[in-house]
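anyone seen this seq b4? input:
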Amino acid sequence: MRILVVEDYQPLRAALVKGLREAGYAVDETGDGAEGLWYATGNPYDLIVLDLMLPGLDGLTVLDRLRAAGCASHVLVLTARDGVEDRVEGLDHGADDYLVKPFAFPELLARVRALVRRGYQAKSPVIRVGDLEIDLVARRVARRGLDVALTAREFAILEFLALRTGQVVTRTELWDHLYEFGSDGGSNVLDVYVGYLRRKLEGEGEPKLIHTRRGQGYVLAEQA
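predicted toks r here
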């Protein structure tokens, strides 16, 4: 999953980026409102973490312009303003959630996970596809009750496929949602990782779960 962090206080921004990357997210970052708007309108982020007090453009103006441009990314607002009227104003401008500074990072991470799930209409943090179980919070994968050890990148690919179970996911969509701005999407790295996933998830004699649709992309489903 890919997240944009727009926060002008560099120590906080660095801590957020580090923590989110360690949690398995691809993260782009900026400390400027106008640049944040440029990033957000040109990339399909699963979530935008947006401070309200920004140079260039303030957070509420960024929100207004994002929604006017048709940006559907969920937005988690960060602010030191803790009044009820401030929270109402942020939500009325198009924010999906509101977190007051200072905050505990585990709470922010829980809100991030919830908003990402909401974006894909996944109410439960555990997704099941046949005998495959993916726990998005514990980042645990099991098939037929047996744990499957995945790398962070393998889990990220499986998570995105799982959130769109039964739907064709193109290589471009996978790349746009799993890699940061400026990454080279011209290589076959995704095909390699999907191959790794298949070998780990689909043992000899077990039904296939990751299916290739030639010329289209991949589908996670019990049947092709």
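Residues 141 and 149 are 7 Å apart (CA to CA). The chain is about 40% helix and 20% strand. kinda curious what u guys think
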